[in-house]
Amino acid sequence: MKERIAHKGKLLAIIIKGTYAPKKTEFITPDAFKQQVGFIVYDKDQEIDAHIHHEFPRALRGTSEVLILKKGRVRVDFYSQEKKYIKSRDLAAGDVLILVSGGHGFHFHEHSVFLEIKQGPYIGPHEKERFLSSYVEKKKKR
C-alpha cells in the first residue's frame, strides 16, 4: 500500500496506493522533509476548532512535489541525482506520489490528470534540468 523508492540509501520517492486507508492519524514524511504529508483521521462528530495559521519564516532548499493522480494511468520512471535510471512504477487513479529527491519522468498510458502540490509556483525553465534518459532511448530503439 506504501512503497519507498530509494537508491544507495537515499529516498527518491514514496508511492501511496489509492486504496490505502489508515485507521488512525499517520504522517508519511518525517519532520525533516520539505513538505509534510500525512493522513489525519477523525471519528464521527469530532470537530476542529476554527483557527488561523501564523506566518513563520521557513527556509527550504530545493523543490519537492506531491502528485495525486485523479484520473488515468501513468508510468513514473525514477532516476538518481546523477541521472541514472533506477526503476519504474505504474500509478492508477487515486495514487499519491511524493517526489523527494533524484530525477523523474512520466509516460501517460491514457489521458491523465494530476493534482500537483509543491512549494511555490513554477518559476521557469531554469529551475529544472531536463535530460535524455538511457531508459527511454533503449525503449525507442526496440
Overview of this protein structure:
This protein is mainly beta. Helix content is about 5%, strand content about 40%. Strands 1-2-8-5-10 form a 5-stranded antiparallel β-sheet, with no helix packed on it. Strands 7-6-9 form a 3-stranded antiparallel β-sheet, with no helix packed on it. Strands 3-4 form a two-stranded antiparallel sheet. A hairpin with a 2-residue loop joins strand 1 (about 1-5) and strand 2 (about 10-15). The longest helix is centred in the last third of the chain and has 8 residues, at about 135-140. The relative contact order is 0.24.
Oligomer description: single chain
Q: How would you spell out the order of helices and strands?
A: EEEEEEEEEEH
Q: Uncertain segments of ≥5 residues (pLDDT<50)?
A: none
How many separate helices? 1
Mean pLDDT: 90
Give the radius of gyration.
17 Å
- Helix percentage: under 10%
- Major sheet characteristics: 5 strands, antiparallel
Secondary structural class: mainly beta
Shape: globular
Distance between the termini: 33 Å
Q: Count the E strands.
A: 10
| Strand line-up across the major sheet | 1-2-8-5-10
Percentage of residues in DSSP E strands: 35-45%
Short description:
By secondary structure, this protein is mostly beta strands.
Output the keywords.
142 residues, mainly beta, 3-stranded antiparallel β-sheet
Describe the secondary-structure layout.
Elements: E1 2-7, E2 10-16, E3 26-27, E4 38-39, E5 65-71, E6 73-79, E7 85-92, E8 96-99, E9 103-108, E10 113-118, H1 134-141
Antiparallel strand pairs: 1-2, 2-8, 3-4, 5-8, 5-10, 6-7, 6-9
